[in-house]
Design a protein that fits this description.
Elements: E1 5-10, H1 12-16, H2 20-29, E2 33-37, H3 44-50, H4 60-67, E3 73-78, H5 82-90, H6 103-107, E4 116-118, H7 122-132
Antiparallel strand pairs: 1-3, 1-4, 2-3
The structure holds adenosine-3',5'-cyclic-monophosphate (CMP).
Adenosine-3',5'-cyclic-monophosphate binds at residues 54, 59, 63, 93, 111-112, 114, 117.
Protein backbone atom coordinates (compact mmCIF):
# COMPACT_ATOMS: atom_id res chain seq x y z
CA UNK A 1 0.00 0.00 0.00
CA UNK A 2 1.40 3.40 -0.93
CA UNK A 3 1.99 6.17 1.59
CA UNK A 4 -0.91 8.02 -0.02
CA UNK A 5 -3.29 5.69 1.75
CA UNK A 6 -4.35 5.28 5.34
CA UNK A 7 -6.75 3.24 7.45
CA UNK A 8 -9.71 4.68 9.33
CA UNK A 9 -12.39 3.00 11.43
CA UNK A 10 -15.73 4.64 12.05
CA UNK A 11 -16.24 3.39 15.60
CA UNK A 12 -19.37 1.83 17.14
CA UNK A 13 -20.59 5.09 18.74
CA UNK A 14 -20.61 6.95 15.43
CA UNK A 15 -21.90 4.01 13.39
CA UNK A 16 -24.80 3.33 15.79
CA UNK A 17 -25.57 7.06 15.82
CA UNK A 18 -25.96 7.06 12.01
CA UNK A 19 -22.95 9.31 11.61
CA UNK A 20 -21.03 7.11 9.16
CA UNK A 21 -22.36 8.89 6.07
CA UNK A 22 -21.78 12.34 7.54
CA UNK A 23 -18.21 11.45 8.51
CA UNK A 24 -17.43 9.97 5.11
CA UNK A 25 -18.90 13.04 3.39
CA UNK A 26 -16.78 15.27 5.64
CA UNK A 27 -13.64 13.34 4.70
CA UNK A 28 -14.51 13.29 0.99
CA UNK A 29 -14.93 17.07 1.11
CA UNK A 30 -11.43 17.12 2.59
CA UNK A 31 -10.08 15.39 -0.50
CA UNK A 32 -10.05 11.76 0.62
CA UNK A 33 -11.16 9.03 -1.77
CA UNK A 34 -12.74 5.83 -0.53
CA UNK A 35 -10.47 2.95 -1.60
CA UNK A 36 -12.16 0.11 0.34
CA UNK A 37 -14.68 -0.28 3.14
CA UNK A 38 -16.69 -2.85 5.05
CA UNK A 39 -19.13 -2.98 7.93
CA UNK A 40 -18.44 -5.52 10.65
CA UNK A 41 -18.59 -6.36 14.33
CA UNK A 42 -15.14 -7.02 15.77
CA UNK A 43 -14.61 -10.03 18.00
CA UNK A 44 -12.75 -9.56 21.30
CA UNK A 45 -9.82 -11.36 19.72
CA UNK A 46 -9.75 -9.04 16.70
CA UNK A 47 -10.08 -5.85 18.79
CA UNK A 48 -7.42 -7.07 21.21
CA UNK A 49 -5.03 -7.82 18.37
CA UNK A 50 -5.74 -4.57 16.54
CA UNK A 51 -5.03 -2.53 19.67
CA UNK A 52 -2.28 -4.82 21.02
CA UNK A 53 0.09 -1.84 21.24
CA UNK A 54 -2.12 -0.48 24.08
CA UNK A 55 -2.21 -3.75 26.04
CA UNK A 56 -1.45 -3.07 29.70
CA UNK A 57 -2.62 0.55 29.57
CA UNK A 58 -5.48 1.45 31.94
CA UNK A 59 -7.97 2.04 29.13
CA UNK A 60 -7.19 -1.14 27.16
CA UNK A 61 -10.02 -3.31 28.48
CA UNK A 62 -12.56 -0.52 28.10
CA UNK A 63 -11.29 0.11 24.56
CA UNK A 64 -11.71 -3.55 23.57
CA UNK A 65 -15.20 -3.67 25.14
CA UNK A 66 -16.23 -0.52 23.31
CA UNK A 67 -14.81 -1.59 19.95
CA UNK A 68 -16.73 -4.88 20.16
CA UNK A 69 -19.97 -3.29 21.38
CA UNK A 70 -21.49 -2.73 17.95
CA UNK A 71 -20.83 -2.44 14.24
CA UNK A 72 -17.91 -0.46 12.97
CA UNK A 73 -16.73 0.58 9.51
CA UNK A 74 -13.07 0.09 8.65
CA UNK A 75 -12.02 1.86 5.46
CA UNK A 76 -8.94 2.60 3.42
CA UNK A 77 -8.75 6.25 2.36
CA UNK A 78 -6.53 7.81 -0.27
CA UNK A 79 -5.11 11.33 -0.56
CA UNK A 80 -1.73 13.03 -0.82
CA UNK A 81 0.05 12.72 2.51
CA UNK A 82 -2.87 10.57 3.71
CA UNK A 83 -1.73 9.62 7.22
CA UNK A 84 -0.98 13.16 8.40
CA UNK A 85 -3.92 14.67 6.54
CA UNK A 86 -6.35 12.24 8.16
CA UNK A 87 -4.89 12.77 11.64
CA UNK A 88 -5.41 16.52 11.11
CA UNK A 89 -8.96 16.00 9.85
CA UNK A 90 -10.07 13.86 12.79
CA UNK A 91 -8.53 16.01 15.55
CA UNK A 92 -7.22 15.19 19.03
CA UNK A 93 -8.09 11.88 20.76
CA UNK A 94 -10.21 13.74 23.31
CA UNK A 95 -12.99 15.68 21.52
CA UNK A 96 -12.78 18.34 24.23
CA UNK A 97 -9.28 19.10 22.94
CA UNK A 98 -10.04 18.63 19.23
CA UNK A 99 -9.88 21.65 16.92
CA UNK A 100 -13.08 23.16 15.55
CA UNK A 101 -14.31 21.47 12.39
CA UNK A 102 -12.55 18.15 13.02
CA UNK A 103 -14.47 14.87 12.96
CA UNK A 104 -14.03 14.29 16.68
CA UNK A 105 -15.08 17.83 17.60
CA UNK A 106 -18.18 17.42 15.45
CA UNK A 107 -19.15 13.83 16.21
CA UNK A 108 -17.29 12.31 19.19
CA UNK A 109 -18.67 11.98 22.71
CA UNK A 110 -15.55 11.40 24.80
CA UNK A 111 -11.93 10.22 24.73
CA UNK A 112 -13.11 6.61 24.80
CA UNK A 113 -16.14 6.98 22.52
CA UNK A 114 -14.34 9.14 20.01
CA UNK A 115 -16.07 8.30 16.70
CA UNK A 116 -13.07 7.42 14.55
CA UNK A 117 -9.65 5.79 14.54
CA UNK A 118 -6.87 6.72 12.12
CA UNK A 119 -3.46 5.15 11.59
CA UNK A 120 -0.59 7.14 13.08
CA UNK A 121 2.21 6.25 10.63
CA UNK A 122 2.69 4.87 7.12
CA UNK A 123 3.96 1.63 8.65
CA UNK A 124 0.86 1.24 10.81
CA UNK A 125 -1.42 2.29 7.94
CA UNK A 126 -0.06 -0.60 5.90
CA UNK A 127 -0.36 -3.07 8.79
CA UNK A 128 -3.85 -1.88 9.78
CA UNK A 129 -5.17 -1.90 6.20
CA UNK A 130 -3.90 -5.47 5.87
CA UNK A 131 -5.72 -6.34 9.09
CA UNK A 132 -9.09 -5.71 7.41
CA UNK A 133 -8.51 -5.91 3.66
CA UNK A 134 -6.75 -7.99 1.04
CA UNK A 135 -4.81 -6.18 -1.69
CA UNK A 136 -7.56 -7.25 -4.13
CA UNK A 137 -10.18 -5.38 -2.04
CA UNK A 138 -8.48 -2.05 -2.76
CA UNK A 139 -9.40 0.14 -5.71
CA UNK A 140 -6.35 0.73 -7.88
P1 LIG B 1 -7.68 5.52 18.78
O1 LIG B 1 -7.17 6.51 17.81
O2 LIG B 1 -8.62 4.50 18.27
O3 LIG B 1 -6.44 4.75 19.46
C1 LIG B 1 -6.50 4.20 20.75
C2 LIG B 1 -7.78 4.54 21.46
O4 LIG B 1 -7.81 4.35 22.86
C3 LIG B 1 -8.05 6.01 21.29
O5 LIG B 1 -8.40 6.28 19.97
C4 LIG B 1 -9.16 6.24 22.33
O6 LIG B 1 -10.42 6.00 21.82
C5 LIG B 1 -8.88 5.16 23.37
N1 LIG B 1 -8.58 5.73 24.65
C6 LIG B 1 -9.35 5.64 25.74
N2 LIG B 1 -8.79 6.25 26.77
C7 LIG B 1 -7.62 6.76 26.34
C8 LIG B 1 -6.58 7.50 26.97
N3 LIG B 1 -6.63 7.85 28.26
N4 LIG B 1 -5.51 7.84 26.22
C9 LIG B 1 -5.43 7.47 24.92
N5 LIG B 1 -6.40 6.77 24.27
C10 LIG B 1 -7.49 6.42 24.99
Amino acid sequence: MSSNRTLAIIKPDAFAGSKAGLILAHLEKGGFKLIASRVMKLTHEQAGEFYAVHKGRPFYQELVEFMTSGYCMPMVLGRDNAVLALRDSIGATDPAEAAAGTVRKLYAESKGRNAIHASDSDENAFREARFFFAETDLIR
